[in-house]
Amino acid sequence: MFQYLKAGLKGVGQVMLQDHALTGMLFLSGIFWGSVIMGLSALLALLSSFLTAWIFRLDKDNLQKGLYGFSAVLVGVAVMLFFKPVWMSWVLVVIGSAAATLLQHVFIKRSFPAFTFPFVAVTWVLLALVGKDMWLPVGDTTNPVFAISDWLLIPFTSFGQVIFQDKALSGFLFLAGVLVSAPVAAVYGFAAAIVSSAAAYFLGAPVDAVVAGLYGFNAVLCAIVFSGKQWQDALWVLVSVAVSLGVTFLFFAWGLPQLTFPFVLATWVTMGVRGAPSLVRHLVRHL
User: Fold this and answer.
1) Strand residue runs (E) in the chain
2) First CA to last CA across the chain, in angstroms?
């Protein structure tokens, strides 16, 4: 029983690429602090992911590492972010998390770094198929006024928005979760949230969205992926953050839900650019 509990917590921790049960516990605490409904949905998504892995006999080592759980958890939270908490939404959590688990398995078998793309793909499909009558109403943010403290909390709201939580304390718990597992990644993530949000503000992004962390959370994920102790790591973090910010602006302009796709695309692009020299050398050697 303990190994399944640990695997479940690791699945939550893997949302920010952390193979650490305590990280997952802090993440779950942050989700429940932000929304009990979302916390329960995350747990249901984890259970659905485990059952899917068991039914389809997916790789046990990957299950223990939490690699089948994180996209499922994000689907579970996202369903309760966009849809009313009616019985059909709970059905969508089960179906969506199972689909995300299977899609994650397909990418893992092909050794392709999908990151959170299975979550993004499944959630986009759900948003496209589900009728508007199930959608939650969008809050009115006309002419918001923000205090200095709101601006100072942007790094924490950015961490919070990685799992769709808008409370600063949730973000603090998420930051703490990364800190206990990978201190360097936590520092990079904190800095990336500031840099990306500041750049978005000076480029004319809506102030309410900047303060809410919506221009910072994809940067947090990018920074975690490329963080390290070499100076080159900082360069790749900056490249990935810049790309993710550009994609975020596009999604806001198009009026589409970005989810974590800016992070996914920016990471793919940055990994491609970083690996290009070695690919060229490989091709030259074989000419």
Assistant:
1) none
2) 55
- Given a cut of 60, whether residue 92 has pLDDT beyond it is yes
Distance CA 178, CA 185 (A): 7
pLDDT per residue over 225-266, tens digit each?
Answer: 999 999 999 999 999 999 999 999 999 999 999 999 999 999
**221 within 8 A of 175, measured Cβ to Cβ:** no
Domains defined for the chain, CATH in brackets: 2-134 (1.10.3430.10), 148-285 (1.10.3430.10)
How crowded is the C-beta side of 37, counted as CA atoms within 13 Å? 14
Dihedral, CA of residue 49, residue 55, residue 56 and residue 61, to nearest 10: 60
Whether the model clears a pTM of 0.90, i.e. scores above it, the answer is yes
Element holding 205 (H helix, E strand): none
Provide the mean pLDDT of the chain: 94
**If 0-12 CB within 10 Å is exposed, 13-18 middle and 19+ buried, where does residue 51 land?**
middle
